[in-house]
């Protein structure tokens, strides 16, 4: 069973690899080749480090290394939820999202929100998030539909 710990700068390279491999493996089931390529390239962009370090990012780690990560901003923004490409559908994403929910409740955050992809929408819905809108995001000239999801905590 994976243990949960917080990410540090020393984890960035392994997290970038996990992110890239997961996107390249699973995004083609939902996204065009252009969308998949641009999404995977985000692991090499300057914006990747803040995705991990500007929020509290929790890692799921087992004997094989980091198997997933999820980030929570101080304002309730769920910045990320990624599971390593070879460990999807094994409960790791659920464990990480539960960790986010538990931390949000300890911090007395009133609301969690995220921009979910086709890949993560089902996980968010499983944890009681509702889709309140959609948006089109632009990355390097490529359009992406994202689902705006939220969950109020009480």
Task: Characterise this structure.
By secondary structure, the chain is α+β, with helices and mostly antiparallel strands. It has a domain at 3-109: Aminopeptidase. It has 5 helices and 7 strands. It has helices at residues 12-26, 33-41, 48-53, 92-106, 121-126; strands spanning 3-6, 56-62, 65-72, 78-83, 111-116, 130-139, 142-152. It is globular and about 40 Å long. The mean pLDDT is 96.
Task: Give keywords.
globular, 34% strand, alpha+beta, 33% helix
Element-by-element helix/strand order: EHHHEEEHEHEE
Number of strands: 7
CATH class of one domain: Alpha Beta
- Low-pLDDT sequence parts: none
What is the residue-averaged pLDDT?
96
**What is the CATH superfamily label of one domain?**
Gcn5-related N-acetyltransferase (GNAT)
**Major sheet: order of its strands?**
1-2-3-4
**What proportion strand?**
25-35%
Major sheet, described briefly? 4 strands, antiparallel
CATH topology (level 3) name of one domain:
Aminopeptidase
Offer a quick outline of the entry.
This protein has 154 residues and is an alpha+beta fold. It has five helices and seven strands; from the N terminus they run E-H-H-H-E-E-E-H-E-H-E-E.
